[in-house]
Design brief:
mainly alpha; two-stranded antiparallel ribbon; 18 helices; 2 strands; 3% strand
Length: 500
């Protein structure tokens, strides 16, 4: 069964199936929606079947490899493969994309193009998480940007063109550094260029050149993660995008930056990664505090949650640069955990906006008694975001804490300072999240307003919310379910750093 090109099928199937959407009647919105949802569910089932039947979880090496020659002149291959680090983001992509398609049910304008773009993103994200070729990684990185730009500019809010332009300038501009770094690494020290991750991971570079490669890749991934001060595109994008697009942005797109930091910067350029790690741990700690404080001052509900995401990305950054077993495992768990929680919060924000057409917190109030189901789900996911024990956010942040404490690279005093700053960030998180809940759901502000037509969560919205709640609770109660995927791969990555 391993000889079957599972990964090629998983990458090509969504976008190839999406091409058939344009043969559907222009006004057949219901048919288009059901067809897209069917493709997403079928892709998720194929992912589950391929991994459960053919992936050896105790093996840290690349599995399910596909390697086909694409461009002989550049020695460019269609080279795919997965390991324990890839499997979590791929499953997350399948799950969140399927639910985002269901969340996009109310969209009727240009329905064919909208759903095609959703499937194109699906293929690009699966392709990126399974790429074992640096040039193919870049192509999938760029392919994912085009659907996001169109989804934002065509189905966004009033300032959608400004936000879409800012998004593409930041992300496409930073991608130039990724392309330059890819060709630089491929051409160095060899008459025949190669983009193969396996070969590049054993390549040695002059120290200055490795630093330059590292900085170039870091800029590309820092924009996508995002890392301050390259984060300003994210609140504007979330503030204007449709909530189904926000689910993909918060759930998957931000995690691509973290994935790239580990897959390329950490694995391929270990000397530079070790050199930069103390500085970037400090940046991660500052980011937690800065974004949490900024989130508290946001009147716009979507921007408040967007800054919350930026704050939580600080934990991922600290986990990656702690260069410790616990820290990296905690970062991987935070990638998965925040993927679910961030997608859920933006879905709930969007569905409540559909009902009240308000987005500013100081205009809200008194919705708890009118919308008890939404109130319950919003409260639960907010508590998960602030790391309540029993939820997935608790263990991911706790393991990052333990990772920085047990890291051998840092002095005792510096670890105490970093942990203290992280603790302050965890104190600030309940402040802006609980104040958000108070302003939205408590009080009497809207009780006397008879112009609002209130109705609670419908079956579709309840299903999406409950579907995301299950893994949030499941990971919170049994985090080893996710950690078991990556623990052997993490040990393999960190074994390189034992000799530094």
């Amino acid at each position: 069964m391993n000889s079957f090109p599972w990964l090629t099928l998983l990458v090509v199937f969504p976008i190839a199936s999406g091409c058939f959407i344009f043969s559907f009647p222009h006004k057949g919105n219901k048919l288009i929606r059901w067809y897209t949802l069917f493709i997403c569910i079928l892709e998720l089932l194929l992912i589950t079947y391929a991994f459960s039947g053919n992936f050896q979880f105790e093996d840290p090496l690349i599995q399910l490899s596909n390697d086909y020659t694409w461009i002989n002149f550049l020695n460019f291959h269609w080279r795919l493969g997965i390991d324990g680090f890839s499997i979590g983001p791929i499953l997350l992509t399948g799950f969140i994309t399927t639910l985002a398609t269901l969340a996009a049910w109310p969209i009727t304008r240009d329905s064919r193009l909208f759903h095609f773009l959703m499937l194109a993103m699906y293929s690009a994200q699966i392709g990126l998480f399974s790429s074992q070729d640096l040039l193919l990684f870049f192509i999938m990185w760029e392919l994912e940007l085009i659907p996001v730009y169109l989804l934002l500019s065509m189905w966004g809010g009033k300032k959608r063109l400004y936000s879409a332009t800012k998004f593409i300038l930041y992300t496409a501009g930073s991608s130039i550094f990724l392309l330059i770094g890819a060709f630089g690494m491929a051409l160095y020290g060899s008459n025949e260029p190669t983009f193969d991750f396996q070969i590049l991971s054993n390549q040695c570079y002059p120290f200055i050149l490795e630093l330059l490669f590292y900085i170039g890749f870091f800029i590309a991934f820092a924009v996508k993660l995002p890392i301050i001060p390259l984060h300003t595109w994210l609140p504007d994008t979330h503030g204007e995008a449709h909530y189904s697009t926000c689910m993909l942005l918060a759930g998957i797109l931000l995690k691509m930056g973290a994935y790239g930091l580990v897959r390329i910067n950490m694995e391929l350029l270990p000397h530079a990664h070790s050199l930069f790690s103390p500085w970037l741990v400090v940046v991660g700690a500052i980011q937690i505090i800065y974004a949490a404080l900024t989130s508290s001052g946001q009147r716009n509900l979507k921007k408040r949650i967007a800054y919350s995401s930026i704050s939580h990305m600080g934990f991922i950054l600290i986990g990656i640069y702690s260069i410790s077993d616990l820290g990296l495992n905690g970062a991987i768990l935070q990638i998965i955990s925040h993927g679910f929680i961030g997608a859920a919060l933006f879905f709930l924000v969007g569905t409540t906006f559909d009902r009240r057409r308000l987005v500013y917190l100081d205009e809200m109030g008194g919705m708890g008694t009118q919308m008890p189901k939404f109130f319950t789900f919003f409260s639960v996911f907010s508590l998960a975001s602030l790391a309540l024990p029993g939820m997935s956010g608790f263990f991911s942040e706790l393991i990052v804490f333990l990772g920085i404490i047990t890291a051998t690279k840092f002095f005792f005093l510096s670890k105490i300072v970093i942990c203290f700053v992280m603790a302050i960030g965890m104190i600030l998180t309940p402040i802006y999240l609980l104040s958000m809940l108070r302003q939205m759901f408590y009080g009497y502000k809207l009780f006397q307003n008879q112009n609002f037509f209130w109705f609670d969560s419908g079956p579709r919205e309840f299903f999406v919310s409950f579907s995301i709640l299950l893994p949030v609770l499941g990971i919170g109660l049994y985090p080893d379910f996710v950690l078991s995927f990556s623990i052997d791969k993490v040990e393999s990555i960190l074994s390189v750093y034992l000799y530094k």
